[in-house]
Amino acid sequence: MKNDHMEFYPVGAPDEYLTQIGRVVEIGGRQIAVFRLSDGRIFAALNQSPHPKGGPLAEGIVSGHYLYDPLYDWKIDLTTGLVQAPDTGRAHMLPVKVEDGQVWIGAGELQTTA
Amino acid sequence: METAKEKLVVIGNGMAGISTVEQILKLTTKFDITVFGSEPHPNYNRIMLSYVLEGSKTLDDIVLNDLNWYKDNGITLHTGTTVAKIDESRKEVVAADGLRVPYDKVLIATGSNSFILPIPGADKEGVVGFRDIADCNQMLEAAKTYRTAAVIGGGLLGLEAAKGLVQLGMDVTVVHLMEDLMERQLDHQAASMLKAELERQGIKFKMGAQTVELLGDKRVSGLRFADDTVLDAEFVVMAVGIKPNVAVAKESGIEVGRGIVVNDYLQTSMENVYSVGECTEHRGVCYGLVAPLFEQGMVLAKHISGIDTAPYEGSVVSTKLKISGVDVFSTGEFIDGPEHTVIANKDDWKRTYKKILLKDGVMVGAVLFGDITDSAELQKLIKQKTVMTDELYASLMGTGCCGGGKKSTSVENMADEEIVCGCNGVTKGTIVDVITNQGLTTVDEIKACTGATRSCGGCKPVVEQILQYVLGDGFKTAAKQGICGCTTLSRDEIVAEIKAKGLQTTKEVMNVLGWSQPEGCSKCRPAINYYLGMLHPDTHEDEKESRFVNERMSANIQKDGTYTVVPRMYGGVTTPEELKKIADISLKYDVKVVKVTGGQRLDLIGVKKEDLPKVWEELDMPSGYAYAKSLRTVKTCVGSQFCRFGTQDSMGMGATLERKFERLDFPAKFKMAVNGCPRNCAESCTKDIGIVGNDGGWEIFVGGNGGIKARLADSLCKVKTDEELIEIVGAVMQYYRETGNYLERTSEWVERIGLDQIKAAVVDDTENRKALLERIEFALEQVEDPWKKLLNDEDKRDKLFGRLEMSSQL
Fold first, then answer.
1. Strands B148-152 vs B171-175: parallel, antiparallel or unpaired
2. Residues pairing with A30 in the sheet
3. What is the CA radius of gyration of chain A?
4. CB B279 within 8 A of CB B244
5. Which of A74, B423, B550, B763 is deepest in the core (most CB within 10 A)?
6. Which residues form the NADH-rubredoxin oxidoreductase C-terminal domain (chain B) (predicted)?
């Protein structure tokens, strides 16, 4: 799966992920939160809240393409990672593709540090 | 061991058919389901077509079940396929394209078609009905090319179509046979106010006009009326009514009147064939609105799944016109006759009108124009055949004066730098600033802008007061607030709509009630999930995805992402064996802290998410629900078993109550205490229900709280026996479950509802108490230990708690 810009890792079939309930995937020691929306789209982010106090993201409530973080109820747009007003910040989103019945997460940039 | 599934074929892929299928799926998995739809779309919300035409919603917004839903539920869907007939002898459903599908049961839900007037020219180009997405698209297209349009029919659909076309820039005339618009839903008064309002919005009217011919060559160019006058129109919408679509039934030899004739269990004259929705005729009535279709679907789903159900006995219908800026509502009987007592109030200045009809003192119908805030309440009262009382009259019609003018103005003296919201550090100055400079008018807006009230909500009253102080009289006119930013509906309106329309899932609620954010937010999703479970304890399928993290995981999340585990210790009593087990497991799973909680039990802090199921399994103790909006602990003192002052067995009663009422969902967390004597060592005064033993029985206190806003509990009543105690406790709990706002603690609830009202409902009215008890007992029959349940469901357990590991083997 070598690619000039990004390495993609297979992380199981889409139905490994319950609709609207996040799940943690570990790639090279880093925790990644994966979300499957009710329309079937899948998003992935580093499992780390942009809130100054940190904490996980995977357990938040998913509504449409927004995530409400589980500890502080920050509203995060999963398509961009941007935190919605009145709060500010950005979750670290990772590229996702679904091919051959597999979900692939582009986590190449993380790998270099592992 | 799997036996062959029964084959259920659904003819019709609209709201009636699919909502029935959704209900069936909740009750049984015994069916292998095939759905035929003649439209090329998945199931969409037909009620919302008006919004699509108006431009405030897109087609995607109104889809109720997308293609994934069919796939996920294993349903075979044939879109764009019309069914020709049911072949009873071969037990097959036959499609127009020749496809044959065998069946055990058939559900006909073919809905209705626009009724096209049988007049010369009705088949010309440019003449459409207003029924489906295709009609809607034609109207959108026509508006781009043509300028003049006529809508034949001044009913609900006709007016919505007319408004849509005006919005699209067309010159529209509504042609109506009668002298009053919507004469099947409104009285003369409301109809004339409606006409005046719509004229202001740019719609023209030709009343009392019978169309006899559509003029033009290939394409329509105008209308000719019975008096020989002519109206030019390049586009004509026929909205004179709907006609049940009975083609399949007729072709199959099923008894048909106006619609497909069914009995009280929605069975047609052909064995194993049912009919539901607008194509159906029940006791001589064909319904054309959405509420009856949900009610029919619910009875049918139970019946077909082999579950006992009360028969369907018809529906009380109500109507709401979906044109922005024109609010009209009617329900039940609305034309007054000699048998009615009429309560009416017309205000030409505010352009509002309200009429309530009584028959022998009982409310039987209502019409509202201009201000329909009472519509859900009226609908409920009329459906329940409520008797009018002075109190009801005062609350519905107003009495002209009311108390409550003593709102504190202490915020006036508050310094600008004083912190109002302690959780998020928002000062009074900041709040005043956003109200004056950004023009905010609601607490929700202030929350979104500054963060005030967002976390614990304790400062909400102060923020409200600041709003009131800054806006002065402007405050009253501020927009009505819903339970969250997604809706303007209040808790009571939502609950009434869920009951009236038989809504079953959060998604259905949000779709049908027009949520602005289609899947809701972290405020309303858990709330709606709670209300649904409270109303339908047996059939509501709890939505894990709509629960807060703690309730979803059955454990409390900590700031580092680890969890805590609190097993039950009924009445705060444990054993050496349990303690030993807890100690061993704490060591084995490297628990960071073992904490004695305020509720007399032990908290294992710092358990890793993936270890949770193992810890539960090895503990083999029931979940303590420390994470839930549910009964937490029943704190007890030592009591008469050992204490020299004890007059009652508080440990025993505490454990009994905790065992009886654990696991049930409440609007908010619920804490109790039982004391053996009035020394009150277990602190009953700060509990949701506090119980104090005395020499001759027990005294029950409600609404105490030791948290955000401390409140001493009020004495509710005294009882003599243990049985009575358990009864009153159960009745209070159920009354709170049924009337409490989600997240509202009993301390706020008691103040809002009033202690007298609660006393009347659970202490004085023994009939009502019995009914409350029956309902709570029924709900209690449905509960199950969540830890055990997750341990037994391997798939869900893995997907909820398991981490997928992806080692870097590439």
1. parallel
2. A27
3. 14
4. yes
5. A74
6. 318-386
Establish, for the pair of chains A and B, how many residue pairs have beta carbons separated by less than 8 Å: 107
Query: Cα-Cα-Cα-Cα dihedral of B793, B798, B801, B804, to 10°?
Result: 180
More confident residue, B795 or B636: B636
- Could you give the angle at the alpha carbon of B13 between the alpha carbons of B12 and B17, nearest 5°? 75
The secondary structure of B697-745, three-state, reads EEEEEECCECCCCCECCEEEEEECCHHHHHHHHHHHHHHHHHHCCCCCC
pLDDT tens per residue across span B128-156 = 988 888 888 888 899 889 999 999 999 88
Which residues in B641-673 are b (16+ Cβ under 10 Å) and which e? eebeebbbbbbbbbbbbbebbbbbbbbbbbbbb
Give the residue on B whose Cα is nearest the Cα of A10.
B806
CA distance A51 to chain B (A): 11
Q: How far is A29 from chain B (nearest CA, A)?
A: 8
Give the 3-state secondary structure of residue B582: helix
pLDDT single digits (tens) B73-129: 999 999 999 999 999 999 999 999 999 999 999 999 999 988 888 999 999 999 998
Identify from A63, A69, A78, A84 which residue to disrupt to test chain B contact, counting B C-beta atoms within 10 A and taking the largest count: A63
Residue B519 CA to residue B485 CA, distance in Å, equals: 12
Reported ipTM: the value is 0.86
User: What is the rounded average pLDDT of the residues A8-13?
Assistant: 90
Chain segment B473-503, per-residue pLDDT in tens: 666 544 556 888 899 899 999 999 999 888 9
pLDDT band for position B738 (cuts 50, 70, 90): very high
Q: Is B1 exposed, middle or buried (0-12, 13-18, 19+ CB in 10 A)?
A: exposed
Rounded CA-CA distance B703/B748 in Å is 7
Output phi, psi for B375, to 5 deg.
Answer: -60, -45
Give the integer Cα–Cα distance in Å for B513 and B508. 8
Handedness of CA B592, B595, B601, B605 (dihedral sign): negative
Residues in chain A within 8 Å Cβ distance of B807 = 28
Test mutation, A59, A76, A109, chain B, max B CBs within 10 A:
A59
Q: What is residue B566's three-state secondary structure? A: coil
Q: Give, as one character, the DSSP assignment of residue B122.
A: T
User: Which is it for the CA torsion B768, B772, B778, B781, positive or negative?
Assistant: negative
* Model confidence, pTM: 0.55
Angle (CA) B745 B750 B753, round 5°: 115
Amino acid identity of B88? Answer: E
Which ranges constitute the DSSP H helices of B557-704? 576-588, 612-619, 650-661
Cβ pair B450:A111 closer than 8 A: no
Of A49-58, B365-374, B567-576, the poorest mean pLDDT is in B365-374
Residue A15 has phi, psi (to 5 degrees) of: -80, 5
Cα(B65)–Cα(B20) distance, rounded to whole angstroms?
13
- Report pLDDT digits (tens) over B696-736: 899 999 999 998 778 999 999 999 999 999 999 999 999 99
Check residue A28 and report its DSSP letter.
T
pLDDT digits (tens, 9 = 90+) for B141-194: 998 899 999 999 998 889 989 988 998 889 999 999 999 998 888 888 889 999
> Distance (Å, rounded) from C-alpha B674 to C-alpha B664?
19
Strands B83-87 and B76-78 come out as unpaired
The CA distance from B234 to B151, in Å, is: 11
Whole-angstrom distance, CA of residue B167 vs CA of residue B169:
5
Phi/psi at B567 (5° precision): -80, 160
**Which domains can be identified in chain A, with CATH numbers?**
2-113 (2.102.10.10)
The identity of residue B356, as a single letter, is: I
